[in-house]
Every structure is written in structure tokens, then in C-alpha cells.
């Protein structure tokens, strides 16, 4: 059995600090074999930088996934091709810097990670995520020999995410959603052996609106006028999921939500 930890969208400095401090400890406490984090909101709430990518990898993340904010920090464009463990969604057009998948060797065999982005209510509109995911999973299995494959589906709607999970059931070990920053309570293992959760949630301030200060977000909804949305402060919630996978078959044997609050100073 291989145990995989996935942490949802890291939001700004509070999320980074909490992950950097707790990830090494969580890996020991929970007997984690392989850790994945979504870092697309880790730089001030928008995007990721090379420096932050390096920090998260050094903290114990084996792979970093992203989403629609992957390119918000301009310096990341040149960095993507140099760091294969930092993924951008696979369904960008050919020629886009970086990669949407990776297969890594571990002590318990090969582990593949695939990053895909949805199209409903999310910008930019990318290529068909279902066709790209299906093709890439088949390639990872056939060409790279990956049986254990974890999919981060960065999408807005629950229907998109459930459809992706059902399509890939029996072909991947887990499909877990990101992007909404709110952890869902629908963890399950589909009949074909694929673990599923609509959204892992975020690693960001608890007293917030999706990691941002409450007041300006409320004001924007009330008035419709432009506001700045700074990252909130205070206690940070770490949210994600732990999936146990049979490394021989690639099928999930257990899935549980991960949730804890962090308020220590580094």
C-alpha cells in the first residue's frame, strides 16, 4: 500500500508558512509516502514563483500542481520548463511551457500525477479536459508504466468533477478537485477503484472568504464596485485528502479528508 497526501490550494503567505511548517510533521504522523500540493495561489494569493516552488519542494512536496492562476507571476513562465515537478494543466495547447503530468519513481513503485483544468465558469478556456485527461492517462500507463495515478482536476462545478471521476474510474487511483477552496464531504471510492473528492479545500486563513479578507469581498458583492482583495491573516486551515492505494493494482483502498488548523509562529 502507498499512502498519498494531497493538500488543496495554498493561499498566500499564511498558507505557505503553514505547509512549510507542518508538511514534514504530517508526513511522519500520517505515514505518508508521497505528498502533492496545489500551489497556484501561493504567491500573494495569485500564482506561484520559482522561489516558492523551491520552498514547497524542500518542505516535502513531491509534486506541485496549479490551475487557472498558474501564469499570474510572470517569472514563472521561464521556470516551468526547468522544473518537471511543477505542473500546469495538461490541456493547454501544444507548445505551452512546462508539462501537465509527471511519473516519479518511489520506494513503492512509480507514482503518476496529472493536472487538468475544467472549462465551466473558469478562465482561460482550455482544450477539452476529458479528451486530454483520457489520452494522457493512457500514455502514462502504456509508455511510462504507471499504475498509481493521482489526478488534480482544477474546476469550478461539481458536475464537471464528478464526470471526470466517473470517466476515469478504474483507470486512475484518485481524482480530487481543486479551485473552489471549500472542502467537500463526498469522499468515496467508485466501483472501479478510483478514490474521489469534489474539492480538497484550501490551505489558507480560516477567518476569510476563500482566503481573502472578509470586508472587501462583502463590499464588492454589496456595491459591485472594484475592491482590492488582500490575503487574510490569523489561524490557517490546512485542508486536503489522504488516499491509500494498492501499488500492485493502482486501485484505491481508502480515502479520508484531512483537516487541521495551524496557528503556530515559525
In short:
The protein is 26% helix and 27% strand. The protein has 266 residues and is an alpha/beta fold. The chain has one domain: Metallo-dependent phosphatases (Purple Acid Phosphatase, chain A, domain 2), CATH 3.60.21.
Structure description:
This protein is an alpha/beta fold and 266 residues long. It has a single domain (2-262), classed as Metallo-dependent phosphatases (Purple Acid Phosphatase, chain A, domain 2, 4-Layer Sandwich), CATH 3.60.21.10. 26% of the residues lie in helices and 27% in strands. It has helices at residues 12-29, 50-58, 76-79, 129-144, 158-168, 214-223, and strands spanning 2-7, 9-10, 34-38, 63-65, 101-106, 109-117, 148-154, 174-178, 188-189, 195-197, 202-205, 236-245, 252-262. Strands 1, 2, 3, 4, 11, 12 and 13 form a seven-stranded mixed sheet that branches. It has a six-stranded mixed sheet with strand order 5-6-7-8-10-9, with helices on one face. Strand 12 and strand 13 (252-262) form a beta hairpin. The radius of gyration is 17 Å and the shape is globular. The two termini are 33 Å apart.
CATH superfamily: Metallo-dependent phosphatases
* Total tally of structural domains: 1
**Given the helix and strand composition, which structural class is it?**
alpha/beta
Taken in chain order, the helices and strands follow as EEHEHEHEEHEHEEEEHEE
Q: Please bin the fraction of helical residues.
A: 25-40%
Amino acid at each position: 500500500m502507498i499512502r498519498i497526501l494531497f493538500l488543496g490550494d495554498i493561499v498566500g503567505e499564511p498558507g505557505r508558512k503553514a505547509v512549510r511548517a507542518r508538511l514534514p510533521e504530517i508526513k511522519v504522523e500520517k505515514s505518508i509516502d508521497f505528498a502533492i500540493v496545489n500551489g497556484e495561489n501561493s504567491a500573494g494569493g495569485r500564482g506561484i514563483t520559482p522561489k516558492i516552488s523551491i520552498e514547497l519542494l524542500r518542505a516535502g512536496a513531491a509534486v506541485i500542481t496549479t490551475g487557472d492562476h498558474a501564469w499570474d507571476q510572470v517569472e514563472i513562465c521561464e521556470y516551468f520548463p526547468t522544473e518537471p515537478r511543477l505542473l500546469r494543466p495538461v490541456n493547454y495547447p501544444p507548445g505551452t511551457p512546462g508539462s501537465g503530468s509527471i511519473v516519479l519513481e518511489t520506494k513503492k513503485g512509480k507514482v503518476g500525477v496529472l493536472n487538468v483544468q475544467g472549462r465551466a465558469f473558469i478562465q482561460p478556456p482550455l482544450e477539452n479536459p476529458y479528451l486530454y485527461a483520457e489520452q494522457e492517462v493512457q500514455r502514462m500507463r502504456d509508455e511510462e508504466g504507471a499504475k498509481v495515478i493521482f489526478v488534480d482536476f482544477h474546476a469550478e462545478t461539481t458536475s464537471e468533477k464528478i464526470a471526470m471521476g466517473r470517466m476515469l474510474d478504474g483507470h486512475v487511483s484518485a481524482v480530487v478537485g481543486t479551485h473552489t477552496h471549500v472542502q467537500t464531504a463526498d469522499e468515496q471510492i467508485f466501483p472501479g477503484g478510483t478514490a474521489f473528492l469534489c474539492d480538497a479545500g484550501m490551505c489558507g486563513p480560516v477567518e476569510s472568504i476563500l482566503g481573502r479578507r472578509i470586508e472587501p469581498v462583502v463590499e464588492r458583492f454589496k456595491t459591485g464596485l472594484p475592491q482590492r482583495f488582500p490575503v487574510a491573516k490569523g489561524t490557517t486551515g490546512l485542508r486536503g485528502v489522504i488516499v491509500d492505494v494498492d501499488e500492485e493494482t493502482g486501485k484505491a483502498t481508502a480515502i479520508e479528508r484531512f483537516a487541521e488548523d495551524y496557528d503556530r509562529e515559525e
